[in-house]
Amino acid sequence: MTRPHGKELHPGYLGAYTSLLAEVSATGRLLRRVELDTLRDLGEHAAEAGHTLRDLIGLCLAETRRCLPALPGVSHAAGPTERVRTGDAVLAAVEAAVAAFGEGHERAQRLAVRQEEAERREFIDDLLYGRSDPGRLAERATRFGLRLGRSHAVAVAVGDGPGFDEIHPLVRRIERELLGRFGEHDVLITTKDGRLVCVAGAGDEAMLEAFGAVVQHPGAGYRGARRVAFGRGHAGPGGVVRSYEEALGALETADRLAIAEPVLRAAELLVFPVLMRDREAMADLVRDVLGPLTQARGGAEPLLETLRVCAASGYVNAEAARRLGLSVRTLSYRLDRIKALTGHDPSEPLQRFTLETAALGARLLGWPDQEI
Predict the structure, then answer these.
(1) Could you give the 3-state DSSP secondary structure of residue 160?
(2) Which residues pair with 192 in a beta bridge?
(3) How far apart are CA 87 and CA 65, in angstroms?
(4) Which of 7, 25, 114, 151 has the most CB atoms within 10 Å of its CB?
(5) 163-172 as b/e, with b when 16 or more CB fall inside 10 Å?
């Protein structure tokens, strides 16, 4: 905490501290619990007022030194033995007072940190879910380094096993890397629901690319993320929510379609939201085109996998057979079965497109494992 401008600690700030030393000097007693609590409160109030612990302890020692010659049992009128005994008692009191000041000061700082963390988490929730007034949200955003008047894009990373949280070492690693390279301007690194999230200006493609690179390859001693998805850039506070949802949608689509690529871009996956915009129509297509495949020996799944691999290999039968671990003859038999059951020929471009679209819809809808 910083010291308030123009405010300096003065001796009166310590209250009855010097009187307490005088009593200790006269009696040799230890500080009582209520007295220590008062000193702790004083340390807490000093922190809340913006005074450093160094300033507070410095004032305490300065006041001790100033009043020490006049304390009973320490003056030259006292004998050597009495001065030693009294000096030990005074030093013990000063030690206890300094410790109490420190405890109170640290207590206030811990509370301030918790409040800051709670406010930051509330802001992040409002930012990513769009639950706050846009004007108020933009005003709060400046405190956390974002200028919501600009366009922003969001990148989301997921890992294997336990998710990421704010104290995860990879979060600190990424913050050091990005802030060291790009400075603290228009970027927010955080976590949400076990995922790593980076919000950055849509014009700062280099920063988002750096986030993706570091989160996947953070270096020795860190376990990188399994996959990272990039939403498109959008303007205003609502743009952050939209980009975040696009990144989450890309991750969900990749999981459903078993897409192996570690880097996903929402702009390259727009066809899938389009396909699912009319879910009922897609379900009808899947049932009408692919429903007959359930009559095949072994069910529909092997034939659906055949369609997927053939499409991925450009309908080069030798390559598709290799990927499936089949002979070319067996692959040809499967394609013939698909044609016979569905009435759509994979070798005909338009019918092939219908089959591929239906197959994508099936994977998005979880068919045939789930009823549609």
Answers:
(1) coil
(2) 195
(3) 12
(4) 25
(5) ebeeebebbe
| Whole-number Å distance between alpha carbons of 320 and 257 | 18
Supply the pLDDT for residue 73.
63
Superfamily of domain 273-365: PucR C-terminal helix-turn-helix domain (1.10.10.2840)
Joined tokens for residue 63:
């006041």
Distance CA 35, CA 100 (A): 10
CA distance 146 to 138: 8
Question: In angstroms, rounded to a whole number, what is the distance separating the alpha carbons of residues 313 and 205?
Answer: 32
- Predicted local confidence at residue 74, as pLDDT: 61
Let me know: does 44 contact 104? Beta carbons within 8 Å. Answer: yes
What own/partner pairs with CB < 8 Å and gap ≥ 24 does 290-298 have? 290/342, 290/355, 290/358, 290/359, 290/362, 290/367, 292/341, 292/342, 292/343, 293/338, 293/341, 293/342, 294/368, 295/341, 296/337, 296/341
Which residue reads 């897609």 in tokens? 282
Three-point CA angle 340, 345, 351, nearest 5° = 130
**What kind and span of H or E run contains 198?**
strand 195-201
Question: Do residues 108 and 51 lie in contact, with contact meaning Cβ atoms separated by under 8 Å?
Answer: no
Judge whether 190 and 164 are in contact, CB under 8 Å: no
Residues 6+ apart with CB under 8 A from 363: 256, 257, 258, 304, 308
Q: What pTM value is reported for the model? A: 0.62
Q: Which amino acid is at 247?
A: A
Q: Can you name the residues that pair with 235 across neighbouring β-strands?
A: 151
Cα–Cα distance for residue pair 218/214, rounded to 1 Å: 5
Neighbours of 312 (CB within 10 A): 11
CATH number (1.10.260.40, 3.30.70.270, 3.30.2420.10, 3.20.20.70) of 138-268 reads 3.30.70.270
Cα 234 to Cα 154: distance, rounded to the nearest angstrom = 9
**186-192 average pLDDT score:** 85
- pLDDT the model gives residue 1: 41
DSSP state of 3: P
What per-residue confidence (pLDDT) applies to 168?
A: 75
